[in-house]
Structures are given as C-alpha cells and as structure tokens.
Design goal:
By secondary structure, the chain is mostly helical. The chain has one domain (2-46, 55-200). Helices cover 48% and strands 8% of the residues. The chain is built from 6 helices and 3 strands. A 3-stranded antiparallel β-sheet has the order 1-3-2. α3 packs across α4 and α4 crosses α6 (145-159). The N and C termini lie far apart (74 Å).
Length: 206
C-alpha cells in the first residue's frame, strides 16, 4: 500500500512540475510584454506624446522573469532590476528605489535612449558606461536571491509608475563617499541614503 502511495505521489509530481514551469514561463512572457509597453509609454510621455495606459505588471509576473538572476539583459525588467541590484549592493530600499527613479527619469529624455536596456548599456561601446557595473568586467549574475527579488519588485513598481520620485527628477547620481568632477557642474536635487542625485544645470543631459 505504501509503495503504491509513493508511486502515485511521484507520478503527480512529474505532472505538476512541467505545469508549474509552463505557468512561470507564461507569466514571464506576459511581464516582459507589459514592461515593453510601459517603457514605451514613459518614453513617449517624456517626449510629450499622448499614450493610453498599458496594463500593469503584477508581482508574480515580475518575479517569474529571470528567476535565477543569470539570464541575458534583453528585457526592461531584467535590465532595471539588475541595475538596481548591482548599483545599490548592501543598502536600503529607499536607495534602491532612488536608483530606479534615475533610470526611469532618463527614459525618453534628450540625450538618452528610449528603452531601459539602452539606458543601462549606454556608453559601453566607448568604455565609458553610465552605470559602472555594466563595464566593470565582473560577472553580472545576481547571486543573492532575496536582494534580487526586492530589486525586481522595485523594477516592477517603477515601470508601473507606482514609485514616488525620491530624487526630484534627477538624471545622475553618485555614492556619497566619492566626489566626481562633474558634480560641481550639476545641480544637486536630493540625497537619499548613500547616494547624491543631480540634474544638469541647463536642464538637459550631457
């Protein structure tokens, strides 16, 4: 009787696991499609074009994207979450949200690409990356599962336009322990946790 029960349970698991995997894959695809529509809306809004509101990404959909933190950066959620993860290692949620704000503030602005992944990769061809983690030569796998899950949730909220802008429209930032030369030529808009945030004095990207 026990052997029959075990066999039945194993058979049920074999049937359930592919179903779970298929459901997660479907959710990930849905999230990526929604994210593309959402980033296009933000870019067009910054360009003063009207656009209808796309459907929001749900939490379970966002978490289904790049579950191991090792997939290529080819969708808005992964690019934004990986940027938040790597730029804010070991800091608080407010800092993470502020970095996400900067990426979203750049989206569609003059001088910046109109996709999240384009913003993250900007300058990489010339070896002068806008985001240091993209050009540091280190593996980009997000190994800390808990931190990456938080980063994906922040990315989801940012794309859904559910995050308050803690940076007051900032397009640039740096860690408060460094003092880059460019900061003197920019207007500081906010300090959030470990970071300082800026906009160009002329109001446009440089």
């Amino acid at each position: 009787m026990c052997r029959v029960w075990i066999t039945t349970c194993l058979a049920a698991l074999l049937l359930v696991n592919p179903a779970i995997a298929a459901d997660q894959s479907r959710k990930a695809d849905t999230a990526e499609n929604k994210a593309e529509a959402l980033e296009q809306r933000v870019a067009s809004t910054h360009g003063n074009a009207s656009s209808s509101a796309p459907e929001a990404i749900t939490k379970s959909e966002a978490q289904a994207v790049d579950p191991a933190g090792d997939e290529p950066l080819d969708d808005a959620i992964t690019c934004l979450a990986r940027t938040v993860y790597w730029e804010t290692r070991g800091v608080g949620t407010e800092d993470m949200e502020a970095v996400a704000n900067v990426v979203m503030n750049r989206l569609g602005q003059e001088g910046f690409p109109d996709t999240v992944c384009g913003i993250v990769r900007q300058g990489g061809e010339q070896g002068a990356c806008q985001f240091s983690w993209w050009c540091d030569g280190r593996p980009d796998v997000a190994a800390n599962e808990e931190s990456y899950a938080i980063a994906k949730e922040i990315a989801r909220k940012a794309l859904n336009r559910e995050l308050a802008d803690r940076t007051d429209g900032a397009l640039y930032f740096h860690h408060r322990t460094v003092n880059p030369a460019w900061a003197a030529e920019y207007t500081k808009t906010a300090e959030v946790g470990e970071f300082a945030f800026y906009t160009p004095q002329a109001g446009t990207a440089r």
